[in-house]
Each structure stands twice: as C-alpha cells, then as structure tokens.
Amino acid sequence: MLNFDFYNPTQVLFGQGQIAALSKLVPANARVLLVYGGGSIKQNGVYSEVLAALAGHHVSEFSGVEPNPSYETLMRAIEQVKAEKIDFLLAVGGGSVIDGAKFIAAGALLADDPWTILEKYGSNVSEAMDLGVILTLPATGSETNASSVVTRKSTQEKFAFMSRKVFPKFAILDPSKTYSLPARQVGNGVVDAFAHVMEQYMTYPVGAKVQDRFAEGILLTLIEEGPRALSAPDDYQVRANVMWCATLALNGLIGAGVPQDWATHMIGHELTALYNLDHAQTLAVVMPSMLRQRKDAKRAKLLQFAERVWDIRDGSEDERIEAAIARMQAFFEQMGVKTRLADYQLGAGHLDAVLGNLEKHRYTKLGEHRDVSLEVSRKVLEASL
Ligand code: NZQ
Ligand code: ZN
Question: Average pLDDT of the chain?
Fold first, then answer.
C-alpha cells in the first residue's frame, strides 16, 4: 500500500426526513444563500422542505446553475454574495450545483479573478465560505469531497480544482428525493459512480486489500441495484444503496493508498466542453476503449476485475479481460448510457479538436504511469467512434 493522508471532515446525514436537521446545522445568525439549478427542487418538494426547515433564518436565493456549471453564471452568484453580505452557502441539487457552490465559496473570498482558481488547480485557495449540501442526484461524490469542476463557456474550457477549504460542512442525503430523477440522470449517476471506482481501482496491484474489496463491493452493488433504480424507481432500499455507493465512490476512502488513473475523466471533460455530452456519456464512451488500449499495463487488475466482479474464470487471460470489458460496456448500455461516439453524432472529424485541447491543456501524460500520451488518447478515441 502507498503512503497516504486521509482527511474528510464532511458530516453525513443519511435517510428519509433528514432535511429537517437543517434548522440545527445552519447557524441561527447566518446569512444564507440557497444555491440551486433549473428548478427540479421546486417540482419534487425539496425546495419547500428546505425553506420550512430554515424558517427563522435569513435566506436569499440564487437559481439557474446549469449542468456543467459555468464560470459566467457563477460570477453572478459571487456578486450577489458580496452585495448581500452572505456568509453561508447551501447547495441543493446534483454535482453541478454543488461544484458551483464550491467555486462560489472560494471565489467570493479571493482577491484575484476567481478563474485563476481553475488555472491553478485550487492552489491559490487559502479560505472559503462555509458550505452545506443537500444532494438530489447520486453521481459525482461532490457532496463529501474537495473537488469541483467548472466550465468557461466563452473558451470551451472545463477544468477541475481541489481544495480542502471547500469540503462541505455537512451533506444531507435523503434517497427519497431521488425518486423524481429522469431515467437519463439515474443512468448517468450510476455510470459516473462506476467510473469513479474504476479510476481508483483499475491500475496495478499495491497490496491494498481492503481498498480493492471496498471498490469491488461498490461495483457489485451498482451492477445489482443500478438497473433496479430504472425498473423500480420508487424502491427506497434500491435508491439508498445507489446513493451511498456514489458517495463512497469518491469520498477519498477507496482512493487512499492506491495509484489513480483519471485519464478517462480528463478526455471526457474535453468532450463535454466541446460537444456538450453529459459527463457520464463521455465516460461510457471513453472507458471501454481506454481499458482495451492499456490492457497490458493493467493486466493484473483487469484479471482480478474479471474474476471478482464479473465471475469470469474461463478462457485465456486476453479472453477473460475482453469479456470483462464487454460486460462493463453492456452494463453502461443497460443503464441507458450509450457507449460510442457515433451515438452522439460525433465522427472522426471531431477528434482533432479534442486532441488539440488535450495538448493545449497539457494533458499529454495522463494515467497512473503518465504514459497516456496524445497518441494513446488518439487511439482510444478512434476505437470509440
Ligand atoms: O438543475 P435542476 O433543475 O436541479 O435539474 C438537474 C439537472 O438538469 C437534474 N436533477 C438533479 N436532481 C434531480 C434532478 N431532476 C429531478 N429530480 C432530482 N432529484 O439533473 C440534471 C443534471 O444535474 P447535474 O448536477 O448536472 O448532474 P451530476 O450530478 O451528474 O453532475 C455533473 C457535474 O459534476 C461534475 C461533472 O463534470 C459535471 O459538471 N463532476 C464533479 C465531480 C466532483 N466534484 O468530484 C467529479 C465528477 O467526475 C464530475 O466531473
Ligand atoms: Zn465523474
């Protein structure tokens, strides 16, 4: 196992009815900004529950944080924070709203242009506003991690940053609030969580037995419960298991002390920035080809994945590896997330722009061995057509 420093200060309140705890979690004298997206929280009752729990608090609102939240929109929120002397952010929504609120939390206290936070991967964040989260879409893990991804629309750049200062103080996870998700977002969430596990698990063995088995447990649970979330959308236990999987997939636990990859995510972010695919759609397209392309470097873990996750024991090594990748790809399709670029009307003519941006952003040595060069990325994308 590699050396590691594990830190996760976010308090999790999990289960039906937990939104009521807001009244105690948010300081009585706080000036709160409720940050949310396009309005799903008004249709499913979350908005009124939040306001009821915060009766007696000072609450303002900022709505309209879009999927793949934009710098342009979030800068308007930062202006509002300053004008209204807001000192507590409450993000209510999916990963985009939470990521957006993290950017607001850090950007509002920065003297420089907040975009520099993305350019410097968060290294210039020395303080951030207090942030609490109510999660409505299990997918990104943003509710209990220190990462955020923001897009600058004008330049078509989608960058991540990380800072311990933006860990949410608390995260409320009520699985019944996910009943209202459209099937597309249920599928996206399961695929994103699956991909997060793979980015931390599918590298090379370092003897991290418990991390491996936690990772495999999350994958097996997603494979079992993901399709049920589509076929039995009102089943509380199914929703609860999917929600906890997504959080555990990226709260730092399974990634502690192991090598990490993230090449699929980096290429995926460029695809979203240029062609507006949903985040999980990019992962479903890139990950199968990425694993096939790098199967020699990942051979030991791919064989472990085949045996322990898919129960594949027969055939040559290469046959078992291909069977496992094919099963994973079929699972993404089963979740309703298409796995070829052509499914999103993208062809060979779209690849140069993606590779050009990878080069411009210096994503030319990706992966756990830093051997995913532009040439490798090109082969992966060509195999995903
Ligand atoms: O905007 P509203 O009206 O709320 O609707 C949203 C949005 O249209 C809707 N939705 C959310 N909860 C709902 C609901 N609709 C009905 N019922 C509910 N309960 O779902 C749509 C998509 O929401 P979004 O927040 O964009 O999805 P997701 O949670 O998948 O977040 C994606 C963003 O997170 C980033 C992605 O790059 C992308 O920008 N990521 C963040 C990470 C992190 N912070 O650690 C890691 C990930 O790898 C990822 O990159
Ligand atoms: Zn992701």
Answer: 98
The finding on whether 288 has its CB within 6 A of some atom of ligand 1 is: no
Q: Is the Cβ atom of 136 under 6 angstroms away from ligand 1?
A: yes
All structural domains of the chain: 11-177 (3.40.50.1970), 183-383 (1.20.1090.10)
Rounded to the nearest angstrom, the distance between the alpha carbon of 182 and the centre of ligand 2 is: 18
Note the pTM of the prediction, 2 decimals.
0.98
Q: Which residues contact 283 (CB under 8 A, 6 or more apart)?
A: 191, 192, 195, 264, 265, 268
CA 197–ligand 2 middle distance (angstroms): 10
Q: Is the CB of 252 under 6 A from ligand 1?
A: no
Cα dihedral 248, 250, 254, 259 in deg (nearest 10): 170
- Main-chain phi, psi angles of 161, to 5 degrees: -140, 165
Strand partners, 13: 172
pLDDT 10s digits, 348-377: 999 999 999 999 999 999 999 999 999 999
